[in-house]
Amino acid sequence: MNISSGCKIPECDKNVTEYTPIWLENVVPFQHNEPEKCMRYSTNMYSNSSIRQCSGDGFDNTKRIKCDEFVYKTNEVTILNEFNLTCRENEWKLTLIGTVKNTAELIMLPISGMLSDRFGRRTMLICAFSLTGTLGILISFSWNYWMFASLEFATALLTSGSYMSVFILGMELVGKNKRVLGGAVISMIFSFGQIFLGVAAMYAMNFRILLRILYSLALVTVSYIWVIPESFRWLLSKGRNKEAVDILFKAARVNKVELSSSTVHALNKCAESNGTNLPTHSKTLSVLSVRSKRLFLRLANCCFCWFTMGFVYYGLSVQSVALGGNKFANFIWISVSEVPACIISYFLMDRAGRKITLSSTMILAGIFCFAYEFIPAEAIFLRIFMFFISKCAISISFSVTYVYTTELFPTNLRQGLMGICAACGYIGSMTAPQTPLLARLMPSLPVILFGGISMLSGSLVLFLPETFNTNLPDTIAEAKNIGRTKQIETIT
Q: Is-above-0.85 flag for pTM?
């Protein structure tokens, strides 16, 4: 929402409104060679002719008054100029929107997980996105700031945990040998979505039109009823074996795979069964802390890592619009950086290992954030390139973190602990939109903060065990012994 603006002077801007007229210094105070955005000089009641000519005699430079109207450098329509949030005292309202959305997601995250487990992955996705699409279109008709903020909070509640649900559904629909590839593809499509957002914003130039475009697309998910099957693993966990087996038979027909007679017999026998053979576990965080200090410290390390991911990843996205040059192009290029990140993470995870890949990319992201501040402001393209590399590195880290975290904890605690880590990530992303306010203290402070916390977290990752080529741990004892004994993964 970084839009150049200034006071509109009704006495002078009667016929044609200019952003930087030649008489501007006569009517508006300057600070550091920049005109003040929200203050102007009072008119001199005894110099009507001078007022009409906008000369210095027509305005009293000893009396300053607050502006009632504003002039903007571009024709872009945002909540800043639509709801009159131009002045400094309203800056917190601009950053509050991002924080409100992430707060809603943090509140709803555990609830959305329970609903997904209760009603199914596909069902929750269709309901959440269709309701979000409807509510999002309503947002575009907001007539004041608080209506806009309230509806943004409501849509965030509905979509909370949606990415996690999509990720889980995707992983449960593919075989074990394709899970890393599936995760990379999902991350890449996410990046393409951000690129589309930047392009749509560039051409729409109006937040109301942009919201209608984006949220209309969410309504397309209603077609998932006929296009995407429910997770057969979820169906099996609920004892709905016949539905699960029907999905497997359909997958075999679509993929032109001929099943052996023994496989067909086993599937038919499973379909006739009403129950489930999957074990259930009821463990809590207190069990983890009491029985294993090592795993508790591992969880704390992972939580800080997730917080860093959310804070730096979304912080760099927010900060990208403040770079020199076209803010839309900057956002698009920063989003493009995630595409090679997805490809690189796919190759690195099964070659260099999880720990080294995660640690090195986080440290590199920090180094390039610091390097960005030592490049002269005139070298815009070089600064954007450094920013591009930082976002690429942290995007690789984000992809690795999803896989690495699931491999560090035992099966009977994995889902609950993953939820705790994800909640910490949301706290980081909730904090990120507030970082532009730090630039008021020192322009380089946000990027320095991103670099410092990224390097610290990357260093702490080195204390975690490597999970490359190891079995997924099923018990606390097995999880504690990761990295102590060499294991070869045979079952996922």
A: no
